[in-house]
Prior knowledge:
Number of strands of chain B: 7
CATH architecture of the largest domain in chain A: Orthogonal Bundle
Number of helices of chain A: 16
CATH class of the largest domain in chain A: Mainly Alpha
Radius of gyration of chain A: 23 Å
Oligomer: heterodimer
Strand order of the largest sheet of chain B: 2-1-3-5-7
Number of helices of chain B: 6
Amino acid sequence: MRLASLGLTPARLASNLPGVRAEATASQLLLAGRAAADDGARLLGLWASDGRDRGRGLCVHVLLIGTEGLVLLEHALPADGRFPSLAALFPAAGRMERAAYDLAGAASDQDDRRGWLRHAAWPASWFPLRRDATSDAPAAPAEPASEDYAFVRVEGDGVHEIPVGPVHAGIIEPGHFRFQVVGEKVLRLEERLGYVHKGIEKRFEAFAVTDGGRLAGRVSGDSTVAYATAYARAAETAAGTPVPPRAQWLRALALERERIANHLGDLGALGNDGGFAFGLAQFSRLREDVLRANLAAFGHRLAMDFVVPGGVARDLDAQQLAALALQSQALAGEVATLRDIYDEHAGLQDRFRDCGRVEPALARRLGLAGLAGRASGQAFDLRCDFPEAPYDELQVRKAAREEGDVAARAAVRFDEVLEALRLVRAIADRLPPTDLTGSVRVPLAALPPHRPGVGVVEGWRGAVTVALEAGPGGSIRRCHPQDVSWANWPVLEHAVIGNIVPDFPLINKSFNLTYSGHDL
Amino acid sequence: MLTILKKIALTGIRSEPAPSVDDAEGVARLHASILRTLGRALAIRQVDAGSCNGCELEIHALGNPYYNIEGLGIRFVASPRHADLLLVTGPVSRHMVTALRRTYDATPEPRLVVAAGDCGCNGGIFGEGYATVGRVANVVPVDVEVPGCPPTPAALLAGILSAVKHAARGVAPADPRA
């Protein structure tokens, strides 16, 4: 990106990816955003912070990723000013900007002024992430009033509306979906999220940097390893603490195991939603096998709290590694058999093919990312594009499809689970020995205050980003996690247009986006 | 079709015995107590009232062939109106308070509530704040709490079974709204 030609002075960004950061004025923010979009860069995150106690005003942070790495643009708002919306360049920015207003009161100049993460549980004039906000909202009502959210309605003969949620019919997270339909055909879907907003970003302020990984690991339970790793990398790169090589490899081992467990679970659920209960029984059995082996290897079925800033919580011995490698081999055979069964099942393929299609051109325009992006021709994978140890030695094969339908998203999962099983074997085989200290964890050096660190990790769903800014004395001043689901939730609304209502659960499952990781 | 049948035959039956709630009572007597209390199988409505989705993953696992919860006469249903028991995860976000109360009110009596996970039991790592009200018992009456982050499927199953025992003894928890 041509930052210097825009008058920006880029400085090195502390991150596990190559990257720069630069202060930008409002016009520079727009120009840099446009230059980035023209270069094919993508939006990883947008958030606001309060720098008024340091004489900077409210600040908006925009994180982009291009072929050369990350660009973090920081724009300090003038008092009572608005920042220019980037939603025309990066559609996913629209909701992020609404969230930035809900949480920090930093307003963009976009037309959509509806609340996004704030419903009616705390006053609209109170902003939890402002430095002068105490942790308790003023006079929170015992039973929050229900809010009147202005859904966009479709008018016309025979059009009717179906409200779904927040409590859904299955074992799923809560969210609201508003369908406008004619007969069975979906004309429009509008999502209303934010129900599981827990105030995580505010909660981080109560943690020390060294301890915040536990909270990061609970932003979205299904991606606990990815979040804990992104948090750890943000803290380590900001502190300049090198991680023992063996710990880096063990983190990748846990991350690939997380990918395997989630993909197996999704493949079973996709079979079930397609009316093929056999698939659920088989894949949920394999997933359980993976979780039980995780318990033996990592001390936790989901490997929660295994990744810590400075390394990993425990080492694995040769016997444990051999067991994981052996299991990978057995699983690869089972998955291959089940893939053949799925591929040859006419009824299932009839449900999967052409269902919930996102064409590559639309995917590119809307910024579809991660696993779902790779099923629609957006072939980005951090493990291949910016390989960090140990991925630089493992030559990860990138899964990519063009069809963009449920079948393609299932196929990407099959490809990736088989590749991840290969990676687990390779890691178990080539894991570097412990260094002379015999430790897989080093103490985290003190973080310089107000110098951001950014960790980005390719989780099973896509990129998981954590931006961390320390305050004085090892405290957390601002920690912002951003899930790839922010990019993909809006695209789901497009994926269902023209499909029938009963296919929505299948399409939704094929994306399987996080609510908790989005609502924060 | 033949490959499917072959795979089923080769996989065999993987279900494991259910965890015992205490030494004196076996699974058969628990079945009897479910039947005595409810007169039929136990129907559960799961409500995520703010969890990080870790608990949901383990609740899902109850349905896998190892735990085979349906084999014990317990099933998850799509509406609270069909449910005997609410399995609630937390911490309860302020945005979910109304939905949780309405779900509880829609569940016919006698109704049981199991709070699952550390967050459902005591607010967990998220605690109480501007966006959360903490433990499930702050919002609806809770019969049994199952700690864990997340609780294992075996612990969840034991919690569900002990709630049924609880009901058989006729102990009703206090309503936080009263």
